[in-house]
Amino acid sequence: RKLAEELLQHQMTVQSELTSARNRLRLAHAEAEIRAIFAEQMIGIVSHDLRNPLAAIKMAAGLLERTKLESRQERNLGHIHHSTDRAERMIVDLLDFTHARVGSGITVVPQLIDLHAVVARGVEELRQVFPHRVLVHRSEGQGACSADPDRLLQVLGNLVSNAVNYGEDGSDILITSSFETYLIKLSVHNFGEPIPL
Asked: Which of 159, 50, 130 shows the shortest CA–CA distance to 94?
């Protein structure tokens, strides 16, 4: 009987400790979620607030463009434009991340576009971002379609960035915009080892 009482007491102690551990885990999980939401909200706030000084820089650069500049100054101004454009894209990415995590999701605004023209413009911008790599754009089929040009350029930028970072140095990067039956296709092909999963 004494052994049975000891076993019962031990079982009750174990159950109590297990319940306590579950409660602590539940509390820790709730706190982690609160911290994650707060961090994402802060990212959204900071990203939004960065737009104002960035807009001021772009406006000042635009005013400088109207003045007579030496070739070196024009090059520097080009770098300013290029850097602010990149910063704007980064801010958009951060805001999209925040909206996807704590908001209503990423907004897509389809419109009638020329797929090949949009991709060509994106490739030209990316050539400025990655001047040490050769980016080749190939278009196949018609160009008119309904899509969100900003989202297309966002996807293109991410794919090309991965190709540059993980592809074989010195190799060309092939960007293809094409039409298939009821489908538009954007692909980026690079050489080298696959991205590790």
From this structure: 50
DSSP letters, 174-193, are: EEEEEEETTEEEEEEE--SS
The answer to whether the pTM exceeds 0.85 is no
Gap between the Cα atoms of 135 and 123, Å rounded? 7
Q: What is the DSSP letter of 142?
A: -
The token pair that represents 127 in the structure block:
């050539």
For residue 194, count other CB atoms closer than 10 A to its CB: 6
If we measure between CA atoms, which residue out of 170, 158, 167 comes closest to residue 129?
A: 158
What is the distance between the alpha carbons of residues 115 and 137, in angstroms, rounded to a whole number?
A: 12
DSSP secondary structure string for all residues of 128-141: HH-TTS-EEEEEES
Beta-carbon contacts of residue 144 (< 8 Å; ≥ 6 apart): 112, 113, 114, 115
Q: What is the pLDDT of residues 42-95, one digit of tens each?
A: 776 776 677 778 888 888 888 888 888 888 888 888 878 877 877 887 777 777
Domains, the chain, ordered by start: 2-102 (1.10.287), 111-189 (3.30.565.10)
187 forms beta bridges with 176
H or E, element range at 8: helix 2-65
Continuous segment of H or E residues that includes residue 167: none
Instruction: List, edge to edge, every strand of the sheet that includes 173-180.
Output: 135-140, 173-180, 183-189
